[in-house]
UniProtKB/TrEMBL annotation:
It comes from Sinocyclocheilus rhinocerous. Pfam families: CCDC22_CC (PF05667), CCDC22_N (PF21674). GO terms for biological process: positive regulation of ubiquitin-dependent protein catabolic process. This is Coiled-coil domain-containing protein 22. Belongs to the CCDC22 family. Residues 267-301, 365-439 form a coiled coil. Keywords: Coiled coil. Residues 178-317, 321-512 form the CCDC22 coiled-coil domain. Residues 1-109 form the CCDC22 N-terminal domain. GO terms for molecular function: cullin family protein binding.
Amino acid sequence: MEEVDRILIHSLRQAGTDIDEDVQSVKQFTSELIVEAVVKCLRVIDPALGNGLSHLLPPGMSARFRLGMSLAQACQDVGFKGEIGYQTFLYSSEPEIRSLFMFLVEKLPRESAEALDQPAGKSALLQRAIAAQIKVQLSVPWLPLSCRLPIHRKTQVHHHAYILKSRAKAYMQNSTFEIHLEYRSRKKARLQKRIEEQLRAAAQPRPDTHGATRSTSDLAELLQSFGGASTGGDVLTKGTRFTHTEKFTFTQVPQMAAAASALPSSHQSEEDLKAQQEAELSALQQQLQQLSVQMDEVGGDIKQLTVSIQQVMTKKRKRILVEASSKRVVHLASQWEKHRVPLIDEHRRLKELCSNRESESSRKLSEIKDLHDKIRQSAEEAKKKESLHKQLQTEYETLSKDVSRSAYTMRILEIVGNIKKQKEEITKILSDTKELQKEINSLTGKLDRTFAVTDELVFKDAKKDESVRKSYKYLAALHENCTQLIQTIEDTGTIMREIRDLEEQIETENGKRTVSNLEKILEDYKAIRQENSALAEKIREG
């Protein structure tokens, strides 16, 4: 058991338990050390289960009992099948603690088992924690730009489509604007030419009144054709420059006749003639002012007509421009549909090719990651083996050189030979025991048969001879005594076996430290009573 205890203590130290160098056996473990070792092992086996447990034994008895029950439940959750309770930790026995520690050490993960070969101590634990943290940070692989996935191809396709649409729209706007300018210039030239012709025709002198009226009506019809019937009517009602000229021309003849009839005779005085001329001059000036006012009104009417004509022409140009634009849009839409179908097919083909390349690149990336992980693991294993080699080399150098390896080999071979001899002796003893049991069984059967034959023969002669009758009685007594003797020997063997079992039980009970545990239980009982009395006093005071 000493070798087993040394292995267990070494494993517990590697798990993080602070065990003194003086402790060489599980028998020397205290309750505090047992609790600390179990909690540290549970934290290594299952961190979620062990982190919620304290590795320090609390001072209060009730808290100790609760901690013991929690530890027992945690060990059962991990998979311990033996009997365990709070007494296992508070009132421990050597076999129970040894079996529990053996189970926990076997449950330690492989990394912890590999860590057993590494040096113990706070510095070594700190270095291992730093190495684990660096390993976690390096778990995310770094990839160069050339190995990254082309995730922006879709946005590039949308950008090209947007450029095509914007260019088509700009082309349509430019073509529509050019058509509009061309149509406007041609319409303006045609309208100016027509107006000039009509004005020239209207400005020519007419020999009679009918000609003047006709020119005025032609101009009115022209204005009506541009501005509509309502506009022409309004112009004629207001009066134009031509109508005023006509009125002025054809009203002068009767006025001059009246003036000629009203002229005085030669015998009138010059003063009357002068006054009459001044009156006529003032009348003519008034008429001139009226004509100038009418001319201004006619100019305003002409401006209004020009504006209305421009509006009408603008509406017509817009209507024609809209129709041409709609036709051009329809034509461009048909052309775009012709070009759109092959572009969509090409886009789908490129998209499928891109997805295939992405899947292939992702597969290659996963393979690269696996290779990196394998390389990292191989490097870590190589480092571990190098550190282990260095440690073993240092241990080998620290060992004493006076004892050679052959001596250890010879000692091991001697131990193996002794084990073989013991095994052979045990096998021989077992075979001898079996043969002896067979002989005993055969002798017992032979004795029973011999006694039966002798009993039958002697019983026949006992009826005739008195001495033979006595011999028969002695024979029966001898057989009974021999049977009792055999039974006594068997009972003695059974008692000896029971004695050995009891001695082993006594040794086991002595190993369980029953007396010390009973004393400890009494002390804990007294402490619990004191705590209960203190709590009762607090309740009474409260």
